[in-house]
Structures are given as structure tokens and as C-alpha cells.
């Protein structure tokens, strides 16, 4: 049996950074949480990495800040040294990515 750590994010693009052979995107996902007697939206910014040349080209040609998107991929824990300290991070590596229309998001809710 194949095992994996997988993620799926549906949200709005807040930032796109194309650098060399990787494109990073920040995608905002909104969660409802109770704040006293009322409910409020809690926004979480997810940073994802795209290495596939085909997906990177799709993003360059079709995606802009504010677009509603869906990203799916695998998760990987990493660590590195910076200034004598060990920094721990979780990478979200995208293998499927698409732009959604507002109607698609409403149907999924």
C-alpha cells in the first residue's frame, strides 16, 4: 500500500513569486470560528510551491492575485540552519492546480 501526506486548498491567491525553477503562491483559506457569541472568519495564508514546468506556465498565463484557485499536492517536513538556529518548515508541493469560478466554490460549500 502506498502512503502519503497530502493537502488540498481552495482559496484566493494573495501573492505569486516566480523564482528560477519554482513558483511560490500564497493562498488564503477562510475558516469559521466562534468568537464569544458570534461567528467570525479566520483567514490563514498557505504558502505552496510549484515545480512542474507545465503548471508554472499555466500559472504565469492564467492566474493573477485575487483569483479563486484549488491546489492539491504532497506535504514534506524540512529543516535548515539560519543564524545558528534550526528552522523547521512544512513544504506544500503542488501537483494539481486549477482556477475556479465563483459558482464552483459556492457549489462546493
Automatic annotation (TrEMBL):
Which domain of life does the protein's organism represent?
Bacteria
Q: Which Gene Ontology BP terms does the record give? A: DNA recombination; DNA replication
User: What UniProt keywords apply to this chain's record, in alphabetical order?
Assistant: DNA recombination, DNA-binding
One Gene Ontology MF term: single-stranded DNA binding
Q: What is this protein called?
A: Single-stranded DNA-binding protein
User: What's the source species for this entry?
Assistant: Sphingobium ummariense RL-3
